[in-house]
Structure formats: structure tokens, C-alpha cells
């Protein structure tokens, strides 16, 4: 099973966060998510609901990293594992797709495509991996600051960083030139330090599951209502077009606080040891592979059509055409759930298989070296 040292509550949160990521990408690909000027539909409103519920996913993932890595000794091995895992998919997926006829060999052998595949971090093949790897490399400096600074000084530092990266942009109707909507190392640093702060000092006022869930639910509701208000306003006032997208930025204030609330809820959650805890520990190491597979550059623009075709064999009900009008809310929610689960299960199964193969290779190499 999974490593004994893994805490089942946080590993369960890691699994849930990655499933939320799949839902976010499904919403984007479906074309049902309401936007400025688009007609208001029941399916569109529920897309806003699911987007508001899941927008915390990436923030939660980085908070977990900050919570644990802030008290760990730095290891290049950890960074190497992320790089090997990433390279496995960026290098092998293109030829596999060519063998099954999805890509042409000329596309696979294109020098730019090859370069993008063998240098995924530098090329930004996955924006998350690019920011996360550099964050890990800088983590010893962040950890030193967390260790040496007083609690009051850490609070002041976090407040200043939040003012720069989060609070200011959350109230500005115009985009700041340095704002990357949370898709950058700067915001990841804020989340990492937040996780490290919570590890060291906790939050006395949020010391129970109900209080943390209330924070998450309240901020999620705030995100939804704000977006529901801004979209029609932006349709009449073009100057608000940018601001109508702000509630769904990772570094929006509501998204940040909701992530802290959800993280805090699972921090105090007790998962009883037994079969469930063992299953969580077994599958959680494979969840990052879900992201690496379905967001690989050659798959990212195709997987929605593939899962549509797969579930569409059950009938037209299960096929969502991007931008399709007349989709009922019930149909949208059911198809979203079935297709997102399908993508998640297939990808996590592939990654779990890769982990098993790599584990056997490692053990075989170890026995060979011992001879």
C-alpha cells in the first residue's frame, strides 16, 4: 500500500483537488461556462457553481506542498522525481499517438515539438510544473525564513505579499501589468508560505471542521454570486469585461480564502485507519499523473472529444457539443460527473501502472547492484 508516513486526510484532499482540476478543464472544454455576452442558461449557471466550488483546486495542492515541505530537508531527489514523471509523458505520449494514428510522424519529429517535449519545464509545457519545480528549488530559502522569522514578522510578510499578489487585484477593475492570475511562481510562493505558516502556527480561530467548511462554503458562495453579478454588468459596461473574470483567478481573494478553509477542514479531519485509509494512500501518489496525462499538449485539445465519443456510445444524451445551446442543468451535471470520472479513472490507472513498473525496475536494479 502507500507509504505509512502519509496522512490519509491530506492524501484524500489531494485526490479531491485533482478531481476538481479535471472538472475545471471539463467546464472550459464544454463551452457551457457562462461568459460576458453569452445567454444565461440553467446549465451555464450550474457551470458557474461547479467552477466556484472547484477553483480552489490548484491553491489547495500548493498549500499541501508548503505544509509538508516547509518542515522537510531539501532533496534534489524530490525534484528529480517530478522531472522524470513529467518527461515520461512528454517524451512517450507523442510517439504513442503517432502509432495509433492521432498524430503524424512529421508532427512528432518536428524539432520544436521535440524540444518542447524534452525540456518541459523551461518550455512551459505544463505551466504548473514549470512554477512548481522552481518553487521546490527555492523551498530551502522559504524554509529558512519560516524557521528564523518571528510569528508577527511572518504575519506581516504574508500580509504584504497578499496585498501585492491578491488583495489589490481582487478590487481593481483594471488588470495590473504584473498580474498573472495566479499562474506563476510568485503566487505559488505565497501559497507555500501560507502552508508553512499553518504548519508552524495553525489558525486558532479555525480550529474545527465546521468553522473551516463554513469559510470554504462562504467564499465559494461569494465567488459564485460575484460572478453572477459581474457577467450581466460587463455585458452593458465593456470596461468591466476583465473584472468579470477576476473571481475565477487563482489569486482572487475569495479563491485564496476558500482554499485555506478547505485545507483547514481536512487538516482537522480524522480518517479512520483501515481499508479506506489504505486505499487513499495507495491511489494518492498517482493523482499528479492525471494532470500530466490529460493536459499533455497533444492530448489537452483532444481528450474532451475522445471522452464524448466514448460516453456517446450510450446515446446522444452523453455527448456535449462545445457551445451547444439547450443543454439542461440536469444533463450538464450528469454528463460532467460521468465524463470527469472517466478521465480521472483512466489517467490515474495509467499512472498507477507506471508507478508499479518503475517500482519493479527499481527493485530489480537494486538486487542487481547488490550482487
From TrEMBL:
The keyword Iron does not apply. It holds the Pfam family Acyl_transf_3. Signal peptide: none annotated. The chain crosses the membrane at residues 12-28, 48-70, 82-105, 125-146, 158-178, 213-235, 247-269, 332-350. Its main location: membrane. InterPro entries: Acyl_transf_3_dom. One of its GO terms (molecular function) is O-acetyltransferase activity. GO terms for biological process: enterobacterial common antigen biosynthetic process. Belongs to the acyltransferase 3 family. This is Acyltransferase. It comes from Gallintestinimicrobium propionicum.
Amino acid at each position: 500500500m502507500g507509504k505509512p508516513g502519509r496522512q490519509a486526510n491530506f492524501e484524500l484532499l489531494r485526490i479531491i483537488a485533482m478531481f476538481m482540476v479535471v472538472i475545471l478543464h471539463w467546464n472550459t472544454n464544454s463551452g457551457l461556462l457562462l461568459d460576458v455576452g453569452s445567454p444565461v442558461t440553467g446549465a451555464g449557471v450550474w457551470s458557474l457553481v461547479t467552477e466556484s466550488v472547484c477553483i480552489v483546486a490548484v491553491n489547495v495542492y500548493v498549500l499541501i506542498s508548503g505544509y509538508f515541505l516547509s518542515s522537510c530537508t531539501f532533496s534534489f531527489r524530490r525534484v528529480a522525481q517530478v522531472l522524470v514523471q513529467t518527461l515520461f509523458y512528454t517524451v512517450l505520449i507523442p510517439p504513442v499517438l503517432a502509432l495509433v494514428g492521432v498524430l503524424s510522424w512529421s508532427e512528432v519529429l518536428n524539432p520544436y515539438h521535440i524540444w518542447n517535449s524534452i525540456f518541459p519545464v523551461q518550455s512551459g509545457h505544463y505551466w504548473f510544473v514549470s512554477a512548481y519545480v522552481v518553487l521546490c528549488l527555492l523551498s530551502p530559502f522559504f524554509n529558512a525564513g519560516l524557521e528564523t522569522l518571528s510569528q508577527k514578522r511572518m504575519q506581516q510578510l504574508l500580509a504584504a505579499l497578499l496585498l501585492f499578489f491578491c488583495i489589490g487585484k481582487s478590487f481593481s477593475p483594471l488588470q495590473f501589468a504584473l498580474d498573472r492570475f495566479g499562474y506563476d511562481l510568485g503566487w505559488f510562493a505565497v501559497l507555500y508560505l501560507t502552508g508553512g505558516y499553518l504548519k508552524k502556527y495553525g489558525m486558532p480561530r479555525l480550529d474545527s471542521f465546521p468553522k473551516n467548511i463554513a469559510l470554504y462554503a462562504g467564499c465559494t458562495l461569494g465567488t459564485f454570486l460575484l460572478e453572477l453579478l459581474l457577467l450581466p454588468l460587463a455585458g452593458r459596461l465593456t470596461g468591466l469585461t476583465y473584472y468579470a473574470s477576476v473571481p475565477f483567478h487563482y489569486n482572487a481573494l475569495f479563491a485564496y480564502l476558500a482554499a485555506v478553509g478547505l485545507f483547514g477542514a481536512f487538516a482537522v479531519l480524522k480518517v479512520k485507519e483501515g481499508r479506506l485509509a489504505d486505499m487513499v494512500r495507495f491511489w494518492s501518489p498517482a493523482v499528479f499523473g492525471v494532470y500530466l496525462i490529460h493536459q499533455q499538449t497533444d492530448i489537452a485539445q483532444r481528450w474532451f472529444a475522445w471522452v464524448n465519443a466514448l460516453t456517446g456510445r450510450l446515446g446522444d444524451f452523453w455527448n456535449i457539443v462545445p457551445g451547444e445551446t439547450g443543454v439542461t442543468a440536469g444533463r450538464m451535471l450528469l454528463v460532467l460527473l460521468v465524463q470527469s470520472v472517466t478521465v480521472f479513472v483512466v489517467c490515474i490507472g495509467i499512472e498507477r501502472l507506471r508507478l508499479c513498473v518503475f517500482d519493479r525496475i527499481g527493485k530489480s536494479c537494486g538486487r542487481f547492484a547488490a550482487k
